[in-house]
Amino acid sequence: MKRRMKRLLALGIGILMIGVSACGSRTPADTGEEPKTEQTDQGSSTKEQEEPDETDNGETEEQEKEPETEDPENSETENNKVDPGQPENTGTQPADQNTEVDEEAFGEMIQSLSQYEEGTAGASLKRLKAAFGVLNFSEQYESSQKESFTQKLQAYLTESEAMSAEDMKLKLEGVDPTVQQVFTEGIASMQDQLSDAGNPNRYDTYTQEKYQNVVKAMEEVLNEK
User: Is residue 100 classed as helix, strand or coil in its secondary structure?
Assistant: First the structure.
């Protein structure tokens, strides 16, 4: 009887152990529970970054040198040096300006004016030549040549008997309408006349301001006579 009780007890213990073992081997999937993840302390698993040691650059780097200042006296001397290849301009006029009047153009203007006489044979063609004599001269004339121009004109009026100051005034007044036609209508409007006169025009176009400057300079001289 006692042996049977021991066997039953042993059998019960064995069954109990099997049940406990079966319960312990169940997975989270069998129970429907989500697996738990064990959180780890990331702070303890990562290495602390070491900050670089600051070095004193002030003791190792060379101080920048201050730029050398230019001696103002030497600089002024260098700037005032004259290029030996360039002529020194000591006058009041710029070196590239021509202060002397064109002798040939001046002579042609005076000759064409002296040959023009209103009321004589061929006066219209002579008037045309005289008008373009003044225009040709004025087109190459520069204001820097005024002194030379007026001196030559004064010398001509003093020495010449062909044309007096009063005669020259009348001739300038006589050719002015023809000159104004050139400015308003152009040379093309008088091609036939120019052909008959031997094409006295040296230029295709003329500058009214230049013409006015020449006439003004001439009138200053003529009014003094």
Answer: coil
Integer CA distances (angstroms), 205 to 15, 170, 183, in order: 133, 25, 8
d(CA 141, CA 130): 17
User: How many angstroms separate the CA atoms of 182 and 207, rounded?
Assistant: 10
**Band of residue 140 on the pLDDT scale cut at 50, 70, 90:** very high
| 222 pLDDT above the threshold of 70 | yes
Sorted by where each begins, the domain ranges of the chain are 103-222
pLDDT digits (tens, 9 = 90+) for 190-199: 999 999 999 9
CA 153, CA 110: separation in Å to the nearest integer?
9
Distance CA 172, CA 217 (A): 12
E strand spans, 26-129: none
Pair 175, 125: CB distance under 8 Å: no
**How many angstroms separate the CA atoms of 127 and 125, rounded?**
5
